[in-house]
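Thread: Newbie trying to understand structure tokens

Hi all, I'm a second-year student working on a class project, and my supervisor (Dr. K.) asked me to get a predicted structure for one chain before our next meeting. I've only ever worked with sequences, so writing a 3D structure as a token string is new to me. If someone could post the tokens and maybe explain what I'm looking at, I'd be very grateful. Here's the chain:
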Amino acid sequence: MTILCFLFFILTMLSILGQTFYQGKFNYMCRLAARPSNGSWPVAPWVRRPCSTSPTTGFQCPPGTFCGSDYQFREQILAEHFQQAVRIKELNYGITNYDSFLSSFLTSFQIMQLSDWQDIFYLMRDVYPSQVGYVYVLMVIIICNYFIANMIVASMMHQHVLLT
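---
Reply by user tm_fold:
Sure, no problem. This is what the structure looks like when written as tokens:
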């Protein structure tokens, strides 16, 4: 039980760290217009990944499209057109993000389980292109997956030996 509490604590800390760097970044998509019009701000349908707000690094939108987030013009976009990224399969239907603690915890847990961690890493690299993504993913994998998961298995084996 102590190891599970420790795992929960470590995942909580890593989730907060992920939120610090990536909160709101996965919402930036390539748009067909520079600003919303008529309550809609359509996403470029041929670009299925988030864009970087940095003009020199990360994934840049193709010419004729503009990088932007629905949250920039929240009051100008109608509810049925808001958060179009949740409809894109390549972005895990908007589940994989760091916008709230719960989604951040789920994303960190997904990386820890090595479940499509490379897709999350590529998203991180697209929106925040620095060494932060490399270090963050390696920390989650090494600390949570290899170290703590092996501690859980060792604890279970120890309990099994004690009971037999």
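A couple of things are worth pointing out once you decode it. The first helix runs from residue 2 to 22. The chain has a mean pLDDT of 82. Feel free to ask follow-ups in this thread.
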